[in-house]
């Protein structure tokens, strides 16, 4: 049996074949940290979590990188509005993001590269594109990608020829698909950028948004990898532009499968910061909605269908979680003496769950298989038809489904937001200790942070941290 995923670029379900046997490299576009992420954002991150968890269930090792956009038009504007430095602003929301991921039981990515840590590599890629004739400089010290120079432009978003305005430029990182234009790889310095600037061969400036993902995915996963994900609004222009940059700069195929999740809606409109119709995780927790209900609600509608947020849905979600939790404790406590060893039910539930999920993560089918087992199991226990050993087998299967759902074992307490200033100060202290070759002290600081659930990762660009 093979897995099939819907590939945005071909608009078809395709058999999933990994580049390396039983290993999947996946890049997922992460948040822009200028505000708290809303639960619409978390719908997309939840879909990516489901995808990874299911591939792991099917025996793949998954290597996931998720970028953090910590410099762009939005972050710079917000830091000026708030009168704080870009780093202060982004550190705060980055910490909030990691805490939310942990609260929602989303498995942490293996790497969270931050755009500001990769600016020199971005400059190199832009230089490469310029050298090969795919990019040109403008009078204001910016560099643009010339979409007319790359034949494949528009393939991912399925742009029609009349949707491409060759020779025209767009400065904003995000814009509508009709009227695709040359886009900024590098933005020449403007006074609004304040102290956010880097030296480059084109003068002072900062990267455009799209180049970060081409560079960081190449650095961490290689030029050609298996899966690239995001929400549907990432298809154009972000992923279209990433594809163009990567293919032209690296001269190789970029990604085998593009997967995008549909929107979370509120009253049939996209949940978004610009429409001010959003809820953060905190908003829902303040209203006393349990984390497990929130996770279940976001997880259990197929990722390519729009999902309307509603309080009723959260209530239904909580009921489903309770039902499954009650089943698990009933199985664990069961002491009946029936003769049914549960083998057939276990086999068919596993086969039905896998067949559904293999079909482009058909979660409704997957859940139907699980709840069929719940119905059967409850009846068999009530009638004492099930053996104790059979209950154990069913419990083991439900626990393996739990690796995919990640909901039964969730903690009800949200993860606290971290004091990033404190963490950064500890990292600085550790750096100083290491520079003085005081390794006992530097190890002690690492252990001290580890006790608080914070893991330090040493990279060529300095020490990063993440929640364990
Ligand atoms: P941003 O922080 O705006 O870069 O968005 C982070 C991720 O959330 C991107 O992959 C978006 O596609 C996704 N996203 C934004 N709004 C929604 C929504 N209403 N429903 C689902 N995904 C969304
Ligand atoms: Zn991206």
Structure description:
This protein is an alpha/beta fold and 468 residues long. The protein has three domains: 20-261, HUPs (Rossmann fold); 309-405, Anticodon-binding domain of a subclass of class I aminoacyl-tRNA synthetases (Four Helix Bundle (Hemerythrin (Met), subunit A), Up-down Bundle); 420-467. 45% of the residues lie in helices and 17% in strands. The protein has helices spanning 39-57, 73-82, 86-103, 119-131, 210-221, 235-250, 281-286, 291-299, 311-333, 343-358, 363-382, 388-405, 420-435, 439-451; strands spanning 4-7, 12-15, 23-28, 61-66, 135-137, 143-145, 164-170, 180-188, 205-207, 225-231, 255-261, 264-266, 269-270, 307-308, 454-459, 462-467. Strands 5, 6, 7, 8 and 9 form a five-stranded mixed β-sheet that branches. A four-stranded parallel β-sheet has the order 4-3-10-11, with helices on both faces. Strands 13-12-14 form a three-stranded mixed β-sheet, covered by helices on one side. Helix 4 crosses helix 5 (210-221) and helix 10 runs antiparallel to helix 11. The longest helix has 23 residues, at 311-333. The two termini are 35 Å apart. The model has no long low-confidence stretch (mean pLDDT 94). Residues 29, 67, 213, 238 line the site of zinc ion.
Strand content: 15-25%
Characterize the largest beta sheet: strand count, sense, and whether it forms a barrel.
5 strands, mixed
Per CATH, the superfamily of the largest domain is HUPs
CATH topology name of the largest domain: Rossmann fold
Cα gyration radius (Å): 24 Å
